[in-house]
Specification:
The protein is α/β, with parallel strands linked by helices. The protein has 9 helices and 6 strands. It has a 6-stranded mixed β-sheet. The structure holds uracil.
């Protein structure tokens, strides 16, 4: 993308025909992102799962249902959120995206951050958190705190991936809820 300023629509068009990594060979649909173009809150997941790959939309499966419930519980306005993933194509068998795949997809994520220009970014799980913060620290040590990213002027708040909440039960779900509540408080502080 060569550093030029590219609209979300154009980024999405480019992603739809992207063959920059091997994930393009096995994907059904590119899952670019969805939501309000200038949303104050951006949520970044890992990569599409089987349902997202079929529908072309992020977080439409079980993880998405939990995420939606928790966003509602802590009072986030769903119309003020943009949701995307670190990689836009499904890794086979839901494996973690590889470094080269994340690097190939990075211009899309960075373009989305630039265009949406959110106040707060919530990263879900290790993959998204490491991609945004450029760290190898674990989500357990990073969650629930305001972080600074070299890739956006937004405040980054890492939390567990909702899939970890589905596996880990109420103790993990409570931490995700608390972290989403922190994101809501930071947005209120910033007047958005
Ligand atoms: N998990 C993710 O990280 N992203 C999705 O879109 C769905 C499940």
């Amino acid at each position: 993308m060569g550093g030029d300023i590219v609209s979300l629509e154009e980024l999405s068009r480019r992603a739809a025909s992207c063959t920059a990594c091997v994930l393009s060979a096995t994907r059904r649909r590119v899952v670019f992102g969805t939501g309000t173009p200038h949303a104050p809150l951006m949520i970044v997941g890992e990569g599409p799962g089987v349902e997202e790959d079929a529908k072309g939309l992020p977080f439409v499966g079980r993880s998405g249902a939990l995420l939606g419930t928790l966003l509602d519980e802590v009072g986030h306005d769903r119309s003020a959120i943009y949701v995307t993933n670190t990689v836009k194509c499904r890794p086979p068998e839901n494996r973690n995206p590889r470094a080269g795949e994340m690097a190939a997809c990075r211009p899309f994520l960075h373009g989305q951050l630039e265009q949406v220009d959110p106040k707060v970014v919530v990263t879900l799980g290790n993959v998204a958190t490491r991609a945004l913060l450029g760290t190898t620290a674990t989500i357990t040590s990073l969650r629930g705190q305001r972080r600074v990213s070299p890739h956006t002027s937004a405040i980054v708040i890492p939390t567990f991936h909702p899939a970890a909440g589905l596996r880990g039960g109420e103790r993990v779900v409570a931490m995700i809820r608390a972290d989403l509540a922190l994101a809501a408080a930071v947005l209120t502080e910033s007047g958005r």
